[in-house]
Automatic annotation (TrEMBL):
<dbReference type="GO" id="GO:0005634">
    <property type="term" value="C:nucleus"/>
</dbReference>
<feature type="domain" description="Helicase C-terminal">
    <location>
        <begin position="250"/>
        <end position="402"/>
    </location>
</feature>
<dbReference type="GO" id="GO:0005694">
    <property type="term" value="C:chromosome"/>
</dbReference>
<dbReference type="GO" id="GO:0000724">
    <property type="term" value="P:double-strand break repair via homologous recombination"/>
</dbReference>
<keyword id="KW-0547">Nucleotide-binding</keyword>
<keyword id="KW-0413">Isomerase</keyword>
<keyword id="KW-0238">DNA-binding</keyword>
<keyword id="KW-0539">Nucleus</keyword>
<protein>
    <recommendedName>
        <fullName>DNA 3'-5' helicase</fullName>
        <ecNumber>5.6.2.4</ecNumber>
    </recommendedName>
</protein>
<keyword id="KW-0378">Hydrolase</keyword>
<feature type="region of interest" description="Disordered">
    <location>
        <begin position="577"/>
        <end position="607"/>
    </location>
</feature>
<dbReference type="GO" id="GO:0005524">
    <property type="term" value="F:ATP binding"/>
</dbReference>
<keyword id="KW-0347">Helicase</keyword>
<feature type="domain" description="Helicase ATP-binding">
    <location>
        <begin position="53"/>
        <end position="228"/>
    </location>
</feature>
<feature type="domain" description="Rhodanese">
    <location>
        <begin position="268"/>
        <end position="311"/>
    </location>
</feature>
<dbReference type="GO" id="GO:0006260">
    <property type="term" value="P:DNA replication"/>
</dbReference>
<dbReference type="GO" id="GO:0009378">
    <property type="term" value="F:four-way junction helicase activity"/>
</dbReference>
Amino acid sequence: ETYVPKYVEVNYIEGSDDTNWSKRDFSWTKKLEANNKRVFGNHSFRPNQREIINATMSGNDVFVLMPTGGGKSLTYQLPALICSGITLVISPLVSLIQDQIMHLLQANIPAAYLSANMEWPEQQEILRELCSENCSYKLLYVTPEKVARSDALLRQLENLHARELLDRIVIDEAHCVSQWGHDFRPDYQGLGILKQKFPKVPVLALTATATASVKEDVVQALGLVNCVIFRQSFNRSNLRFSVIPKTKKCMEDIHNFIKDNHYDECGIIYCLSRMDCEKVAEKLQEYGHKAAFYHGSMDPELRASVQKQWSKDEINIICATVAFGMGINKPDVRFVIHHSLPKSIEGYHQECGRAGRDGQISSCVLYYSYGDYIRVKHMLSNGAVEQSSFASGYPRAGATNSGRTLETNTENLLRMVSYCENDVDCRRFLQLVHFGEKFDSSNCRKTCDNCLNTQTLVDKDVSEIAQQLVGLVKSVRQQFSASHILDVYKGSNSQIVKRNKHDTLSLHGAGKHLAKGEASRVLRHLVVEEILVEDVKKSDLYGSVSSVLKVNEKKAGNLLAGRQTIILRFPSASKAPKSFRNDATPAKGSLTSSKQTPVPVEAPASAQPQTVVDKELSA
Ligand code: ADP
Ligand code: MG
Ligand code: ZN
């Protein structure tokens, strides 16, 4: 029997070859299964674990995308156990490493780690053990800066390699390699040296968060060759997603939501600033909730104690910056509320992912106002936004405030805004598209606010708009981002648009008359259908990255020749859309609209699957 976590729905493999990785007649299969039971105490493998292990054991470079909690560690710990040499694991966070080592030692698997803040004698002892005749370690964990900066370590690795004892190199949290990801760490970029030095040693790169562009970046930077890719659906069917307009009485809304849906249950409220955390916690305490705050400038001891009280259910609600997250494995988090706009869809998905690890229905509610967008944008450009999890003890080398990645950050933020402002498409669909995954909205079964929404929708033929947008992408010589294209299309006269206006011919302003959000939906649809592709552009001069739209000639042909009709569904104009730009308290009585309250925990189970959103008439 296979144990399938409840939230894993689709389980597909995208490999660069046709090998059947789930075969059970590899020479190591028996040993693998026996050790999985005996040493790790698992009854079976989770989705993709067996396949990943077989691919890496066969000597391939492997790239794994698996949601947090999916069981990535086993895919290298088990091979490490049954191979004769040592597995090198690069992991970003000392606390995570220590936690892993503790578990390994409990299972009697010899393991050690090296990090820069260890005493030198202690480091030396480990290095000595590595070069000893019969080194006992099965796994050696190191932080990335060790690889980038320690010659002593590299020499030991060369030595191990020469003795044919370097079995495998594992890059955990591999998305940190990419500036495009939400957790860029400069030291990860130096890891390419490992493949250069040890080209024949298989590399296993693991991450829970990677868009197509991050994946490309990682594969390139690490120098992976013919790598086999395992990707698991990122859909979390037990989570309920809603975006709610944030008003002045947002705190009252949050209180009511928790009281009505998750009374005395455990949850996280993500706030933008440290001050917000404290204010939100205080307000909730006034309402009678057991709440506390958690952020980077707290005394470490106090912080640890808050986290402990929370894990023991003495505190229900943690009001935190994104610093609160990685390594938190509480299975019964029933809600994740965003008190303000997350900085990227990736980050948002990951933060929401901390809810409902046990597979039980849980809520994800985002309170959105356009004002918060301006606020986050401002904070990003000042480098004032608290960074995620890695904050504990690790300098982030100014990934956000260097200006280098400001463009990337702004682009990521804009996508988050467009997610929030979209009141038509399935939230799951919108999130998963971002991970390069096609999700059929009818599988949402009304578990997000947009699918639950009963407002009338009308079909609209947007083929002409689509043709114009594709034309526009071509006329700017495929050098610009989606937001730039939209600006030109809507007739913006900003400096950058003006400077490039001569290229855009008659299409500048061609979309002036369209309703708000219409053009961006068509554009996104074109990206989803791969008629347009989003590419990462690297500028050699400064090493900065940005997103650039290109035309996929193969798929654009039918559309441009008028042989393809694209029909999208829009809210009928008769009903007023929910107003996000209005930060003021709505008039009394207007609050009963279904769009003003989150999806209830008990969503209709027998909901009819939604009909297909768009149709295409291909030649
Ligand atoms: P990830 O790194 O993907 O976030 P972990 O490797 O930390 O996930 O695993 C999450 C949890 O799942 C751990 O508690 C681990 O013991 C458990 N686990 C992993 N594989 C299995 C399995 N095959 N059967 C049962 N539990 C498993
Ligand atoms: Mg992990
Ligand atoms: Zn939906």
